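Handout, section 4.2: multi-component inputs.
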Amino acid sequence: MAEMIWLVPLLPLLSSVLLMLGSASFPRLLVAVLGVGSVASAALLTMSIGMDFLADPQPFQMTLWTWMQVGNFSPGIAFYFDGLTLVMMSVITGVGFLIHLFSTEFMEQDSSYARYFAYLNMFVAAMLVLVMADNLLLLYLGWEGVGVCSYLLVGFWYQNSANGQAARKAFVVTRIGDTAMALGLFLLFTELGTLNIQGLVGAANQQWQVGDTLPLIACLLLLGGAVGKSAQLPLHTWLPDAMAGPTPVSALIHAATMVTAGVYLIARTHGLFLLAPTAMMVVAVIGLATSLMAAFTALMQSDIKRILAYSTISQIGYMFLALGVGAWAAGIFHLMTHAFFKALLFLGSGAIIHYLHHEHNIFKMGGLRSKMPVTFWSFMIGSAALAALPMTSGFFSKDQILLQAYQLPGPGPWLWLGGLVGALLTAVYSFRLVFVVFFGEAKTQTEGDTGWRMAVPLVTLCTLSLIGGYFVIPLDQVFPASSGDHPAHWVEYVSISVPLVGVLLAYLIFHSGQLNVSRLVNSSIGQSLRQFWHSGWGIDWLYDVLLVRPYYQLSRIMKGEPVDAVYSLIVALNLTFNHWLAESQTGRMRWYIASMVAGLILLLTLALQIPLEAV
Amino acid sequence: MLMVNLILILLVGGVLAMLSERLGETMPRKVALAVVLVDIVYLLSQLSAMPQLTQLQAPVPDDPSTWLMHFKAQWIPAFGINIEFALDGISLLMVMLTLVLGAIAVSSSWTDVTTKQGFFEANLLWTLAGVLGVFMALDLFLFFLFWEVMLIPMYFMIAIWGHENRGYAAMKFFIFTQASGLLMLVATLALVAVNQNATGVWSFSYFDLLHTSMSGQTAHWLMLGFFVAFVVKLPGFPFHTWLPDAHTQAPTAGSVILAGILLKTGAYGLIRFAVPLFPQAALDFSFVAMLLGVAGVVYGAVLAFAQTDFKRLVAYSSVSHMGFVLLGVYAWNELALQGAVMQMVAHGFSTAALFMIAGSLQERLHTRDMREMGGLWQQMPRMGAVAMFFVVASLGLPGLGNFVAEFLVLLGLFQANPWMTAVAALGLITGAIYSLILMQRSFQGEPNARYDSHRLVDFAGREMFTMTVMMVALVALGLYPQPVLDMAQPVLQSLLELTSAGVTP
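Output:
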């Protein structure tokens, strides 16, 4: 089966092209069959390739053709397959399939049904290329490809300018990171002579020592790309706005797959990062800081999708923390479990929004437990996994991250402590959402619960969120083994109990009301903190003042083309000179004769002087 | 003879197109299209008979017999002026681009020219003839002649069939090109004189002038003469200000030819003449040239973002994109030069398409002002989707030709000057900003109520066909650029060897 691997991205790509060409004429059923079917077959193909691989875990490489060859620069359209690729492909095609299926019902009423599936298929294809690429240039193709698809889907409902604004913001902010990444590619190729990932890491380990400057710069540049795509500080601001897209899009692109591309990139190039311990520390710190910042912000939001968006930023922060402390496998494990439970939560919220007439405000919901049982249980399970309650998938992955962070010599315990605070906040905000939306009084009418095409993905993802923690993912060959020893038992107990405390707090504050926080919240400090956190720590405002508005102003000043002023000056001088000369042409004979005589005298004087001097 | 015939067909074809107006109003465009197609078929038929093409050898720059093709006939023997044409991989590439875009340009003006159609098509064909001459002439006097030949019909196209401010734009275009062309003429004559002094022979032949020995000071000034002429045409910052006016005012076919082909003559001139004739002076000057390139990339992008006129925005995007060409040429290594050549081809298609879309919008809405647009996707989804394709091409989406070009330029530039690369890479960000705002202001957002009442006609057969040709071309260039790279490679290789021999390290 392995030699069929190129079909996996090709199927959704072909379907996407077909849908674009025939969008107007295809009946809806055909659109759905193409859209869902192509991803389903990609998933099945991935599964069978995966089976073969698990039976005989030999990484392999496959070159379709040489993309371009200039001197010794010869990146290929070539794929590399190992355990990490398998995990990523499974998540993309598996979760992708479920979300496509969900979309067939969710988008049923939309007039641009075919356009939607064309974009979504295209996204899957690009994302697959990203994780299958054997060289960084092809990875970059997938990387930019998913960026454009994200742009198209965030701005899917283009008639609303706000959506377009959000889409452009998403693209441009990530492009800033991408540009850093491109510079990283230039540096790596110039220094190491290849962009092939395996070859690159090998060459780097031969040429560079641990702690050298060049690997540090290269890693930081790659990290720039990663923080952009994965919405980490300081380039995270696009993700909450990206929620303007249809909710299944948020589930697929902005929770399960594309936003974790940065995590994948760092994990894929971990051989480089191991040469730059400083860069790894930066990764860990960015991850932790982002996860805390976003958790605080999530706690203050009232838009259900924004809560989930900040939660995603926060959870990816955990993955970065894992990468930064060298817990590579744990980071990827969390990537996978997060894909399950966050896709579940987003789809669940999609169901709510769908059946509540596009209501996003959680305080206008309430009491949905009995009316939407499927959705309710989805949220219960998803939130439990998100909060890392014991036995859920999120528990296993997050626990690994925290324990391995603790073991890092030096700052380890501090990183662990920070992670714990984040875990506490996660439990609070996720169960705040559950209690506010599903318990208490009903404030809006619903139109019933989901149909089967929405229910099947939800139930499947529920199962995965519960049992995903028991999956054994084949990463042993990919990453260096982590140390086998365990930290003291109390560390483990604390890590387990903190989320439970968080749930309890959420219960006391948002459900039973036994813990009254209104005095704290309404105090002046509480108010301003709330405002500050709600706005996402003022970072959007900061960028607006520092970058966006100056750029607008600059372009406004320059619009009249300042350089042209120089040429206009030349024109003006010419015109003036012309004017003077024209003035002299008066048509009066007296004036002409007088000036002729004057000129003659002048010339004669000059003529007389020259020979005198010469003699 | 092939090269002479290619030009003659277009020149004579222009006359025919003009005369054919007597047979009917729609005849000229048909004749023009036929003429260009005949030229293409003729070129292809001759090429397929050319055995060297499958395994291109590196042409020795100063030995015309190693080139793909060489033609020489006496013209003014007293001054060593000949009718001398030669063809190597790069000129062949440019000739093909010219003819393909020429056909596209004829098709783009299928319906929007309503007056003096015969003379219009004639001017179009004569411009193409001039451009072909520029790409093939290797006698510097003849080169200058064609440089002027392509200018004058273009001037007429803007001045007669242009939009509201055409007089100003045409005059500006003419003066900029003419004044800078004069500098080139002076530099050419001086170079020939210097060569005559040294060898005692008058010759305008490129092949004789390549190794002219002269003092560093002389070389510097002569190089500047060529440089300015080519950079005005490119256009490079700060000589670009004619371009937004000319592009905006020109009729669609004029913009397509201007952006798609005419600008490339500047880039071609730099690669063919400005650097190889004065390798040392060019090397010493390369830092300044690269600075101008970076300035163009960023400046063009900022100004593009500021525009409200659809065409003007695209025009400024050309300034930005051509900045990459300047960077590529003066980084002067294989990667960067390949990038520059690639950019010449890819930008030809992507910008030509955007100008055609601009033209189609103007034809339908009678305005280019994007404040009067918005939400056009709803009424014209096909045009919207096509526009989206070329917009993401122009912002450098991997998988399309423009990405290959920009990536190679920057990769090569990085090896020459990493810091310059970091600044130039800002162009990737600013490029995204202006490209996406173009889409937002015209096709996305709330549909403008002005167009509720009357139906706007979406792209149909003829337009979709030309657009598809260009889309296929960009995808092919983006995913398998090797044929183009292979054509340019031997030429660039030998140019690099030539210049490295001509400079003291």
